[in-house]
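Self-study notes.
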Amino acid sequence: MIDVNDTLAGLSLTEKAALLSGENTWQTRAIPAADVPRIWMADGPHGVRKQVGSADHLGINGSEPATCFPTAATIANSWDESLAEEIGAALGREASGQGVHVLLGPGLNIKRSPLGGRNFEYFSEDPELAGRLAAAYVRGIQSEGVAASPKHFAVNSQELRRMVSDSIIDERTLRELYLTAFEIVVRESAPWTVMSSYNLVNGAYAHENAHLLQRVLRDEWGFGGAVVSDWGGSNDAVAAVRAGGTIEMPSPGFDSAREIEAAVRSGDLDEADLDARVREVLTLVERVTARTVPAAVDVTAHRALARRAAAESAVLLRNENRVLPLAAGTRVALMGDFATTPRYQGAGSSLVNARDVSTLAQALGASTLDLVGTARGFRRDGVADAALVSEARRLAASADVVILAFGLPEIAESEGSDRGTLALPADQIALLNSVVAVHDRVVVVLSAGGVVEVPPLDGAAALVHGYLGGEAGAEGMVDVLTGVVEPGGRLAESMPLRLADTPTAGRFPSTARTAEYREALSVGYRWYDASGTPVAFPFGFGLGYTTFAYSDLRVQDGVVTVTVTNTGERAGSDVVQVYVGRSAPSRMPRPTRELKGFSKVRLEPGASTTVRVPLGDRAFRYFDADLDSWQVEGGEYEVSVGRHPGDPTLSATVHVEETTSGGAAADGSRETPTKATRALTDSEFATLLGHDVPASAWGNGSLGYNDPIDRISTSKSALVRLVFRILDRRRRKAEASGHPDLNILFMFNAPFRVLSKMSGGLATRRLTEAVLTVVNGQVVRGVGAVVSAYFRGRRLEKTSRERFRAASERPRTTRRSR
């Protein structure tokens, strides 16, 4: 075991500076003579992705086999904290079994828009639901001695130019929506690490944002762990140390260590700040190496858990004439390309090398149903094929029920790019229309990491959204279709009728330098509720095969109690959802109602139970920007219990005491002067921010260190513009094939600084600046500078490695050394 204090006291300045960046893509640096081992980090929000060969951070190269569980967006629909914790523990065991010390997940960013390309990795549009489920994952992972790393902190909402985009957001919206989920995780599960996001937040990069990392995360919430940068997300190593960023990943070589050491020697960086960060590293190493025997992994049990989780998270959206569940012996025709080539996870860094992936065709064939045939029905690339439709139509005539396996192709949802539409491919809709013309018992099963526009699917008698169900998702779906498992899923995000109805329509993703959060608090159901915009299916919605009744609602001493009765003929589950909203007019704009508690209940037919849902400190608070603190507006509040925000089955009024003394709530000086039913104007947004709206346009001059690489399309050099066209041609070719080129997407979205920050020491900042000389039109001078910077950098790296090796091999003392 490491004695953190003694070890820290015995480290040299060189050693301390070096510990704050990685040794390679996935490991931290070791100091053997001080008994500080290297530790291994790996992606793993829904399955461990440990690479032992050629390493990358984008899920391109292979990794060790692991159980692929349903993605976070899927599990969120379960609303089941115990299930989330069980999955977390399984992830922790598999990580431990593979020698992984830090599992990079779960992801819990708020789904600002359904177009977010990485929404499949995130839980919800609501911070209460996202935070509590993520906290359960963290508790499970860390119960196995492995550090969880909830991510991405914070306000990481879009993939486009994610490494350079500046999220401009007012403090109240930041606190109430985008930080609350992280606050819940930190306070309720004490993660050992947190991963900072790529983007800037109000002008400062997240990994060097003192307001986020020191003021909020550490001082207010009491976080005592290490902050790990997203891979390539560190900008200024010295600023990060000063602000609370602990470990820079992956390895930038010793470039950052040299900067940190020089800053301490010059007095630009207080060594106390450096020591604080090193203490966090050593504490992390101490925690994750405490377990000396790797966990035993029961692969069979983990796959069974993955199957159960997929079934319990599937959302039954429509079930006309009770076509579901399907009785044993039902003659079923299965159609759709997803039936034999499943989509069970998203693309990017979370990509798991799954052990045993099942298909819907295999799962149906092994069930009690009579599978009369399978037809492809449509092409994955969206190209219309009349022959495939005709084949499917003929097959439909031979079946009692037709199951259509629909979904979004891989290219639609990927790390590195955002979606452009909520529509399903037209050829899938054409197949549905053709089949419903000859058959009235059609079941559509959706595979997608988020919401889609469903009005075109109105012809289907039943609609089940399985999201991305993991390696056993097909079997879990068949369990639901046949009634072996009651569909227990409830939507963790709203399903709009059309993209134009969403709160960020026309503004997401931002192509500008800034992403302006002008919808403020009106995200997801808060927007639809306040604006009166109808949705296809509301947040919290989901059907089952049985029915439930609520009665005897009481709110007393901060606890909501309600009696739930299974009034149907089958055992089943329901989610009791508690919403809170003002009864009397408020002094400030606020959502009509907000989720403040929930509980999942399972009951046999005719059984009743009393459900208790505590209303904690978060139930009535708001953040006062003028007082810079949480406050409570006194008065009457409506506490409602229902199945979604627009279904207050039962409600009660409670009186809450005031805590406010002056500030925004008293005079409205920083509050939005309009109802939150549209994007704010420039003046309204400036009022909310408390300052002028920052300029959003990209500059027209020379490109710089933190400009996105895709802006080489505007380079003064014809040669550089040619390079852009070649790369862009590769990107478009990959998109046409249906499989995104993650390398190109990452490169285009990334700033020039990644050339040195992610080189492992092959490049330095000086070399990056030389490349920019070429990009900005001074080709001859720039090429010479590149060559010079490269060889100078190699010499510096060699010297730094030798200094670090010499320092780390010297005899240990307990003296504090400069």
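Second protein, same conventions, sequence then structure:
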Amino acid sequence: MAQSLADLASARVRGILRYFPESSQAEREELRATARELLDVHGEGVLTVLPPIERVMWYLAAEGRAEDLVEVVRHQRRDPGAFLVAGARRPRLVLPGLRGLALPERIAALTRRDLPATAQLTSVGWRGDDLVWEGYAFVANLPRPSGRAVGRFAVLKNDETGRRIRLRMRRTRSEQATVASGQALHCYDHTGFEVVVSARRLRELAGRGAGQWFLQVGILGPGGIYGARVRQRDAGTAGHNQVRHLADGSRLVVGFTKNAVSITVQQPPVEVESCTVADGELRLVTRARSGAKVPTAVTVVEGDTRLDSPLTPLSGSPDAFRRHQSVFSLAQLAANDLPGTKTRQFKVTLRGADGRGQAALLAEGFTTSRHRLAPGRELAVHRDGPGRLVLATRAVRPVVDAMTVTGSGELVLEGTYPAEEVAGKKVILRHGTRFEEKELPVELADGRFTVRIKPEAAPQAHGPELPLCPGRWYLYFRDADAWDKSGDVPVTLRPEQVQELPMCFSGPQRAYTVDRRHFDRIFIEPERLLGPDEHGAYRQRMLCEVYFHEQRELPLRDAVLYMSLSGKQFSDSPRAVYEELVRRGVDVEHIWTQDGGLPEMPPGARVVGRGSREWYEALARSRYVVVNTTIGDWFVTRPGQRVVQTWHGTPLKKIGKDLLGTTKSNPAYIASLPHSYRQFDFVVSPNAYTTEIMRRAYSIEGEMLESGYPRNDVFHAPDRDARAARVRERLGLPEGKKVVLYAPTWREDQKHASKLYKLDLRIDLAAAQAELGHDHVLLFRKHPRVHDNVPGAGRGFVWDVTRYPDIADLYLVADVLVTDYSSAFFDFAHSGKPILFFTYDLEHYRDTLRGLYFDLTTRAPGPLLQTSEDLVKALRDVDAVEAEYREKYAQFIKDFCEPGDGLATARVVDRMLDGGPHAAAPTDG
């Protein structure tokens, strides 16, 4: 592959281009000289393999057109890869807002490669005997097909013969297309399609003989037709093969090949009719059509295990088929099947006398089954999506065979699970990416189970029932005393019933779908929280640029909008401000922001989803806004509105401008800081140390109120003991046990593929429980950015309190805090209780990952521990640790916990209301 100019340039030069608007004059000259030299040496061909906007950027860099390049880079940041297209026959790139940008034809001209077509299947089903495909198809940056009458078409193409069959294609509306495009410039709602393959056409395909036909979509665009194969979905019915048997013996596999939608016509001369188990043997029966060549043997292979059995004739067939039987010993199939072994899936092949094999395709009406082997293990006589026989030895699985929905929107799943297997197990509902878990009640009787799921009132540990957040939720059975999820047994659907999915139903508030993945793994998926006019980058841009500004023209309302950690919690200083306003009886409406995780929110407030129209309206019209994170560069404070930034920590880790020159530096973000902090009427600071750092690192030009954090007033409140007692009761903490709170920060270099952060667990929880479990409990509070299960949670020693609304409550019940580089210890120090630092990666975190503002080894108010054993030892002897660090602790409080008089919230609220319609009336003095 030819190298592009971006490939030839150094990482440093690429970095200058990425942050060109923030670059120095010397850096700009370095970029210009390098780009010019590379073009002179390698020719302009090194530009042609770049995406269009990158091509423009490098061209402008080589030409030294700095002002134009600044604007193009800023456009790329706002909406990467999006542009307008001019020219019906010879397409040319145009950037919105930069239509006058002068570019030579060789740079602005667009080729087919620059305008890739996307075609995505969203559903597949049957309308009587007609096959119906639905999806969307568009050419990137061309939101509407050219022309009116002949915009798009669909064909089935046989790659082997090249033959094409034109299909009827109806244009539909698809908001999914705009959302999936991931860009904010174009609306692709009108690019949906419905393709119907009639029963007559399906019979015609079968009549042409065996072969594979791919679904392709053609879109008329600049310079001709843009074509693409329609792609498979990653899950659900539109992501799985289906088999359709025709009257002439042909079978159609409506499904996918290499991620592309296809119809495969098969005319198998031999099929597997049945596969049964009796007397320690598995008996496989085939049927062959008249005149067909019959295989002579069946081969079963898994790893190094290979079993062969001849096919012998069966007499007395009641029809025109010839039947043969092959027999296998169960003992041989299960010879290497040990307890705890993962699923062993055998490939079944029918072999002829010449040794050639063919797939074991299943006849219409084939029935799957399961047969017990050793304790905890079973043989599954199964099938896959294309209708092939699958044999597998595996852990005994719970299998759903009935799905119903009650009138109140409760999903009821019933199925089989032998009584000897289900004993001592519980049912877990787990989110596929967030790894959040719900433990569900289960009814067991006579080898059957019943699970009732209330998706709008799902149980959570130590709190009220909450709705399931969007995403896929999977069901598992787990041993009640299991330490982690490693032994979970997935709940699957009986293969004969997979065609009943998707099943859609509605609750009182939202709609839900039951569907499948990996053929028979069922999941429950709530609809997304944002509506069709709110979801995705394009709708969010329209809400920001149009709706929000329309709402700003309407009068302010006496309301307070709160947002804690972007809507992830009802917590922190915004909560303290809310409770103070309620206590004072200030006559305002209280509105809380809630994100997609659907955290617990106060019952006395109105709740709005972050990014919803209600949220934008509240942000534009609320007289007061209280936040502890940034809002967004698009936000503008209006006259008469008070926006309070309470922030959420005392900096130990370097932040903002202080990261310049490190690998974590983001010059674009740093350049945006002055504007971001002009949005706030004042910024709250917990102490003089933080004031100095934040003003410098965040380029804060306005007022900073050094009031202390409202969230820390809880440590000084007269009712703190009563509040702690309520928290202990809510959590169900055992009396007489010491409470250890573990609250680590996240690690930027520990990520899941989904861009969520992993739990970097270095505590040996099993060993800790053995040493401390009889007189301690460990409350484990993951950072909001971390998504993983906590091993051992729910077994009496480890308590996962991540979903508990506010860590301040947990501080009150904790006897000791264990943390690392989290700002939690600055807050907890207000309590005067012991703090232990589990800093197993101090050098890496300090020197490579983030950098620290001060030497933790000399100023920490507790010991820095590197091993799990050291941590457990320190917890066991925490009184001695407390005595050893008493002087350092006292100095730490002087340095970082003043003001600490319990009046921070009052100071913040007084300042927020000062001079406004809700200010306290002056008293005569």
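Instructor comment on the second fold: The chain is about 25% helix and 30% strand.
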